[in-house]
Protein backbone atom coordinates (compact mmCIF):
# COMPACT_ATOMS: atom_id res chain seq x y z
CA UNK A 1 0.00 0.00 0.00
CA UNK A 2 1.37 3.40 -1.01
CA UNK A 3 2.09 5.98 1.68
CA UNK A 4 0.31 9.34 1.82
CA UNK A 5 3.46 10.99 0.48
CA UNK A 6 3.60 8.56 -2.47
CA UNK A 7 -0.05 9.24 -3.30
CA UNK A 8 0.58 12.98 -3.02
CA UNK A 9 3.64 12.71 -5.28
CA UNK A 10 1.48 10.97 -7.89
CA UNK A 11 -1.11 13.74 -7.63
CA UNK A 12 1.65 16.33 -8.08
CA UNK A 13 2.43 14.74 -11.46
CA UNK A 14 -1.11 14.74 -12.87
CA UNK A 15 -2.46 17.17 -15.45
CA UNK A 16 -4.83 18.94 -13.05
CA UNK A 17 -2.02 19.75 -10.62
CA UNK A 18 0.17 20.97 -13.51
CA UNK A 19 -2.70 23.28 -14.46
CA UNK A 20 -2.79 24.54 -10.85
CA UNK A 21 0.97 25.17 -11.03
CA UNK A 22 0.39 27.51 -13.96
CA UNK A 23 -2.42 29.22 -12.01
CA UNK A 24 -0.11 29.51 -8.96
CA UNK A 25 2.51 31.20 -11.13
CA UNK A 26 -0.02 33.86 -12.11
CA UNK A 27 -1.30 34.29 -8.56
CA UNK A 28 2.17 34.73 -7.00
CA UNK A 29 2.37 38.28 -8.34
CA UNK A 30 -1.04 39.22 -6.94
CA UNK A 31 -0.96 39.54 -3.13
CA UNK A 32 -4.73 40.14 -2.87
CA UNK A 33 -5.47 36.89 -4.69
CA UNK A 34 -2.94 35.06 -2.50
CA UNK A 35 -4.71 36.49 0.56
CA UNK A 36 -8.11 35.28 -0.67
CA UNK A 37 -6.64 31.86 -1.43
CA UNK A 38 -5.12 31.62 2.05
CA UNK A 39 -8.46 32.55 3.61
CA UNK A 40 -10.31 29.89 1.60
CA UNK A 41 -7.74 27.20 2.38
CA UNK A 42 -7.64 28.17 6.06
CA UNK A 43 -11.42 27.86 6.33
CA UNK A 44 -11.35 24.48 4.62
CA UNK A 45 -8.52 23.14 6.79
CA UNK A 46 -9.97 24.36 10.07
CA UNK A 47 -13.47 23.09 9.29
CA UNK A 48 -12.32 19.65 8.16
CA UNK A 49 -13.11 16.89 10.61
CA UNK A 50 -10.98 13.84 10.15
CA UNK A 51 -9.98 10.87 12.20
CA UNK A 52 -7.13 10.19 9.77
CA UNK A 53 -3.90 9.40 11.57
CA UNK A 54 -1.61 12.42 11.51
CA UNK A 55 -4.27 14.80 10.17
CA UNK A 56 -3.70 17.35 12.95
CA UNK A 57 0.06 17.35 12.31
CA UNK A 58 -0.47 17.84 8.57
CA UNK A 59 -3.03 20.57 9.22
CA UNK A 60 -0.71 22.38 11.66
CA UNK A 61 2.18 22.22 9.20
CA UNK A 62 0.05 23.50 6.30
CA UNK A 63 -1.18 26.33 8.52
CA UNK A 64 2.51 27.11 9.21
CA UNK A 65 3.15 27.20 5.46
CA UNK A 66 0.22 29.57 5.07
CA UNK A 67 1.81 31.85 7.70
CA UNK A 68 5.07 31.60 5.70
CA UNK A 69 3.24 32.79 2.58
CA UNK A 70 1.69 35.66 4.54
CA UNK A 71 5.11 36.63 5.97
CA UNK A 72 6.62 36.44 2.48
CA UNK A 73 4.00 38.77 1.06
CA UNK A 74 4.18 41.27 3.91
CA UNK A 75 7.99 41.29 3.51
CA UNK A 76 8.97 40.00 6.95
CA UNK A 77 10.31 36.64 5.70
CA UNK A 78 12.07 36.09 2.37
CA UNK A 79 14.32 33.12 3.11
CA UNK A 80 12.40 30.71 0.86
CA UNK A 81 13.00 29.36 -2.63
CA UNK A 82 10.62 30.60 -5.33
CA UNK A 83 10.02 26.99 -6.42
CA UNK A 84 8.86 26.09 -2.90
CA UNK A 85 6.48 29.05 -2.88
CA UNK A 86 5.11 28.10 -6.30
CA UNK A 87 4.54 24.47 -5.36
CA UNK A 88 3.09 25.42 -2.00
CA UNK A 89 0.64 27.85 -3.56
CA UNK A 90 -0.36 25.17 -6.08
CA UNK A 91 -0.99 22.76 -3.16
CA UNK A 92 -3.09 25.41 -1.41
CA UNK A 93 -5.02 25.96 -4.67
CA UNK A 94 -5.65 22.21 -4.84
CA UNK A 95 -6.88 22.15 -1.25
CA UNK A 96 -9.07 25.25 -1.74
CA UNK A 97 -10.55 24.08 -5.05
CA UNK A 98 -13.81 22.20 -4.50
CA UNK A 99 -13.34 20.25 -7.73
CA UNK A 100 -10.27 18.05 -7.70
CA UNK A 101 -9.53 14.40 -8.45
CA UNK A 102 -11.93 13.21 -5.76
CA UNK A 103 -14.62 15.82 -5.01
CA UNK A 104 -14.55 16.97 -1.39
CA UNK A 105 -18.27 16.42 -0.84
CA UNK A 106 -17.63 12.64 -0.84
CA UNK A 107 -17.22 11.86 2.89
CA UNK A 108 -13.71 10.89 4.06
CA UNK A 109 -12.47 9.88 0.59
CA UNK A 110 -13.01 13.39 -0.78
CA UNK A 111 -10.44 14.89 1.56
CA UNK A 112 -7.95 11.99 1.23
CA UNK A 113 -6.38 13.29 -1.99
CA UNK A 114 -5.95 16.76 -0.42
CA UNK A 115 -4.35 15.10 2.60
CA UNK A 116 -2.04 13.05 0.39
CA UNK A 117 -0.87 16.09 -1.56
CA UNK A 118 -0.28 18.07 1.64
CA UNK A 119 1.71 15.15 3.11
CA UNK A 120 3.87 14.99 -0.03
CA UNK A 121 4.50 18.75 0.05
CA UNK A 122 5.38 18.69 3.74
CA UNK A 123 7.76 15.78 3.22
CA UNK A 124 9.39 17.27 0.12
CA UNK A 125 9.81 20.77 1.58
CA UNK A 126 10.43 19.92 5.20
CA UNK A 127 13.70 21.88 5.30
CA UNK A 128 12.04 25.11 4.08
CA UNK A 129 9.21 24.65 6.59
CA UNK A 130 11.67 24.01 9.44
CA UNK A 131 13.69 27.12 8.56
CA UNK A 132 10.50 29.16 8.72
CA UNK A 133 9.47 27.57 12.02
CA UNK A 134 12.82 28.52 13.59
CA UNK A 135 12.48 32.06 12.24
CA UNK A 136 8.86 32.29 13.39
CA UNK A 137 9.68 31.09 16.91
CA UNK A 138 12.53 33.61 17.09
CA UNK A 139 10.28 36.42 15.85
CA UNK A 140 7.66 35.56 18.48
CA UNK A 141 10.33 35.39 21.19
CA UNK A 142 11.45 38.95 20.43
CA UNK A 143 7.91 40.22 19.83
CA UNK A 144 8.03 40.81 16.06
CA UNK A 145 5.20 38.59 14.91
Could you give a quick summary of the protein structure above?
By secondary structure, the protein is an all-alpha fold. The protein has helices spanning 4-12, 15-27, 31-47, 55-73, 82-96, 109-124, 126-141.
User: Judging from the principal axes of the Cα atoms, what is the shape?
Assistant: globular
Number of strands: 0
Strand content: under 5%
N-to-C order of helices and strands: HHHHHHH
Taken together, the total number of domains comes to 1
The largest pleated sheet is described as: none
Number of helices: 7
**Helix vs. strand class:** mainly alpha
| Average pLDDT metric | 79
Distance between the termini: 42 Å
Roughly what percent helix? over 70%
Radius of gyration: 15 Å
Unreliable segments of 5+ consecutive residues: 104-108
Describe the protein:
It is a multi-pass membrane protein. Pfam families: DUF1232. The protein has 145 residues and is mostly helical. It has one domain. Helix content is 72%, strand content 0%. The chain is built from 7 helices and no strands. α1 crosses α6, α3 runs antiparallel to α4 and α4 packs across α6. The longest helix has 19 residues. It is globular. It starts with a helix and ends with a helix. About 3% of the residues have low confidence.
Describe the secondary-structure layout:
Blueprint: H1 4-12, H2 15-27, H3 31-47, H4 55-73, H5 82-96, H6 109-124, H7 126-141
Helix pairs in contact: 1-6, 2-5, 3-4, 3-5, 4-6, 5-6
What keyword list fits this structure?
membrane; globular; transmembrane helix; 7 helices; 145 residues; DUF1232; single chain; mainly alpha
Amino acid sequence: MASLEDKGFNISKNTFFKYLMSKASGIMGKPVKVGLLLTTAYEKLTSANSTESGFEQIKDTMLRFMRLVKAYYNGTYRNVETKSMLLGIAVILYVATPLDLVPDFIPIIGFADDLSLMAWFINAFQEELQKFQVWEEGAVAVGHS
